[in-house]
């Protein structure tokens, strides 16, 4: 098992290398002089040149990349010119809202998706099944930002049950922290719930028609145990894959929703950095987000062996 984990970790190195090259090139081939954009129209040529030298933009691009990668390997993502602080610190400051939103959004998705998928599979072909699948399709079709705006209008403005925007850190109290995240979490979680529900139904249908389920029923095992203990457990690997991907999407793809609800998360950080052409922050955030996504997929892969013993046997 340790050898397998080591092999999977080492396989991430080429992925991160390719991503680092892509990030660096995309940022640096964007039209416009970065130093001039940062300083504004009133900056003199000498000031622009001085900033270019300070940021290392006067060096050949391959040398800039080598210096950046060397610093990243040593844990240094650079410094933000505008925020006057290390990029790592800026990411950590903005990580809590994004992580809290992703966790709450995933909880919303699972609470909605797993029961819906199980019921739809169990009632296959019935009106209940068709209704639930139509709702799932609608969930996938409605953009998260549109659902967020509708929730803001209905729940926040008309009913005034929850705040429409803003953020409170968890240190101010759990409820104060969560109430600002409920609406954006529902906005994001609804789409992920539709995807997970669809996969849960599909995976459950395959297992419910197998011989060992028929055998369990013939032995008089209670129906809820057949469905939950036997069918769901054996159908869970594909569902786990979708859950892992959905959580990765929630962590890395909540930019629009964070902007709408004015959450000071990773999404807002990268949007502000793009507007300012803050190279160090853009490169650091995108690399960090990529690392988080591949680590989530690695964790999901390792959980396969915990859920299904057959996976452990194949690895041996």
TrEMBL record:
The chain crosses the membrane at residues 9-29, 101-122, 134-157, 177-197, 235-261, 281-307. Residues 95-304 form the ABC transmembrane type-1 domain. This is Peptide/nickel transport system permease protein. Keywords: Cell membrane, Membrane, Transmembrane, Transmembrane helix, Transport. Coiled coil: none annotated. It is a multi-pass membrane protein. Belongs to the binding-protein-dependent transport system permease family. It is found in: Cell membrane. The keyword Membrane applies.
């Amino acid at each position: 098992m340790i050898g397998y984990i080591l092999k999977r970790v080492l396989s991430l190195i080429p992925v991160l290398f390719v991503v680092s090259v892509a990030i660096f090139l995309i940022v640096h081939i964007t039209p416009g002089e970065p130093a001039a954009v940062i300083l504004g129209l009133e900056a003199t040529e000498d000031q622009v040149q001085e900033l270019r030298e300070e940021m290392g933009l006067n060096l050949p691009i391959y040398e800039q990349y080598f210096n950046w990668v060397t610093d990243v390997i040593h844990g240094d993502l650079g410094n933000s010119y505008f925020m006057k602080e290390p990029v790592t610190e800026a990411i950590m400051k903005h990580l809590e809202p994004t992580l809290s939103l992703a966790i709450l959004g995933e909880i919303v998705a699972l609470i909605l998706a797993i029961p819906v998928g199980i019921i739809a599979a169990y009632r296959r072909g019935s009106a209940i099944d068709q209704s639930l699948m139509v709702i799932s399709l609608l969930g996938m079709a409605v953009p998260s930002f549109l659902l967020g705006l509708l929730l803001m209008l209905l729940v926040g403005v008309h009913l005034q049950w929850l705040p429409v925007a803003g953020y409170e850190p968890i240190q101010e109290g759990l409820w104060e922290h969560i109430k600002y995240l409920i609406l954006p979490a529902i906005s994001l979680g609804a789409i992920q719930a539709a995807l997970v529900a669809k996969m849960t139904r599909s995976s459950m249908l395959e297992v419910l028609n197998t011989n060992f389920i028929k055998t369990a029923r013939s032995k008089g095992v209670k129906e809820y145990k057949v469905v939950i203990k036997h069918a769901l457990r054996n159908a869970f690997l594909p569902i786990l894959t979708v859950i892992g991907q959905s959580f990765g999407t929630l962590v890395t793809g909540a930019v629009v929703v964070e902007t709408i609800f004015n959450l000071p998360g990773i999404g807002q950080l990268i949007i502000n950095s793009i507007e300012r052409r803050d190279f160090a922050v853009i490169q650091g955030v995108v690399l960090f987000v990529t690392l988080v996504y591949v680590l989530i997929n690695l964790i999901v892969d390792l959980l396969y062996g915990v859920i299904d013993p057959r996976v452990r046997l194949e690895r041996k």
